[in-house]
Automatic annotation (TrEMBL):
The lineage of its organism: Bacteria, Bacillati, Actinomycetota, Actinomycetes, Micrococcales. Residues 74-149 form the DUF3592 domain. It comes from Clavibacter sepedonicus (Clavibacter michiganensis subsp. sepedonicus). This is Integral membrane protein. The chain crosses the membrane at residues 34-56, 159-180, 373-398. InterPro entries: DUF3592.
Length: 400
């Protein structure tokens, strides 16, 4: 009897499948990601520019009226207007109440002005009949503003939001081309690593031992592999493909490490013959709750010194450590197989096999720790630049 399998976290809904397909499409098409960044950046930049123009226009109108062109009148609160806004002051209400004042111009016309600087969440905060000073243009009484200290200080307050928004949009537009180039480089490196995988059935495919282990586990349904955690199954499958190679698997908190078996003297002469001067280690961290894993690459210098049995490898000091996504292009020549064919081992291809193994277990690869730290640092630097630039522009706008 065929058994249906329900993914962890419940069944996958059609909407989630659409989101996953769209995510996969953007992850495999760098140009689409760049286009998305350009569209979002253009929208944010356009909104920011409109906000800047609106704030500067309101400030110019107030400056013109307060510099002597305006006439002061007494405005009387006649009604409280209820406005529905998506940007509200409290999390419990999506409406705000703003007072509308009426005044009589010098030509006898009756005009009104809405005060958006004193809006409240409660309509009963205002008293009908209260008065407030109003400035208006005698040539066009419809152009009127509230003349209070609070209103004067908020005439250009929109710049506090518009300027950072504009800079953020410009940053996205500038970052889009480099993001596309970086994605294409990563894709090319992944394709190159996959090209070094064994060929099965005439088509480039996953490593045979990965597919075989997954097929056995799926057919069995129960057994020793299903009795252990996903992390241990992950480590076992990776280790099963390292027989006859200078790599080994060792456990670590929340995952395992894959790297050169430098404690095994069998590989010393081979590593020295291949002139290995760097030791690459792939630290795999597994988050079983989120069904994700990440790989942190660490490169340490490797030196050779004379020992009792020959040349002995020694790892460099901590100052010689590099981390992040590292392209390790060295090929280790292992010798001749029984058929007389030269066999070799590629650590970079092994990294691709680790990713393939994780995916065969239903895990999704994520960015490494060094990459995340770099992104957070870059975001923080951009944020500081935006704050500094917006502050400087605001000061210039207010004083100029």
């Amino acid at each position: 009897m065929q058994r249906s399998r329900v993914p962890r976290g419940g069944p996958v809904h059609r909407g989630n499948g659409t989101i996953m397909r769209a995510s996969r499409l953007f992850s495999t098409r760098p140009a689409l990601r760049g286009l998305l960044l350009c569209v979002v950046g253009a929208l944010i930049t356009g909104s920011g520019i409109l906000g800047i123009v609106s704030a500067l226009h309101q400030g110019d109108v107030r400056d013109a009226l307060t510099d002597g062109a305006g006439v002061t009148a007494e405005g009387t609160l006649t009604e409280v207007v209820t406005l529905h806004s998506s940007t509200h002051r409290t999390r419990y209400s999506d409406t705000e109440h703003c007072p509308r004042y009426a005044f009589t111009a010098a030509d006898g016309s009756r005009q009104t002005v809405l005060d958006r600087t004193q809006c409240s969440d409660r309509a009963d905060d205002f008293t009908t009949g209260s008065t407030i000073p109003v400035l208006y243009d005698p040539a066009d009484p419809k152009v009127a503003i509230i003349d209070t200290p609070g209103a004067r200080g908020s005439s250009r307050s929109g710049l506090l939001f518009a300027i950072p928004m504009t800079l953020l949009g410009l940053g996205l537009l500038i970052a889009a081309p480099s993001a596309v180039r970086r994605a294409r480089r990563n894709r090319a490196a992944e394709d190159a690593a996959r090209a070094e995988m064994p060929v099965l059935g005439g088509e480039p495919t996953a490593y045979p031992e990965v597919a075989a282990a997954a097929a056995v586990a799926s057919a069995a349904g129960t057994g020793s592999e299903t009795d252990v955690s996903v992390t241990e199954r992950f480590a076992r499958r990776v280790a099963s493909g390292l027989d006859g190679t200078p790599f080994m698997v060792e456990p670590c908190p929340d995952g395992f490490r894959v790297g050169f078996a430098l404690a095994d003297a069998r590989w010393w002469s081979i590593l020295q013959y291949s002139d290995v001067r760097d030791s690459i280690t792939y630290t795999v961290r597994v988050d079983e709750r989120k069904n994700r894993f990440r790989i942190d690459d660490t490169l340490r210098t490797l030196s050779w010194s004379a020992g009792a049995t020959g040349m002995v490898p020694r790892l460099g000091v901590s100052s010689s450590i590099r981390s992040g996504r590292i392209r390790y292009g060295r090929i280790i020549q292992l010798g001749l197989d029984p058929g007389g064919v030269l066999t070799a081992f590629s650590p970079d291809a092994e990294r691709a096999r680790i990713v393939e193994t994780g995916r065969s277990l239903g895990l999704r690869p994520g960015a490494g720790r060094s990459t995340l730290i770099g992104l957070w640092a870059a975001g923080g630097a951009i944020g500081l630049c935006i704050i500094g630039a917006s502050t400087a522009l605001l000061i210039i706008a207010l004083t100029g």
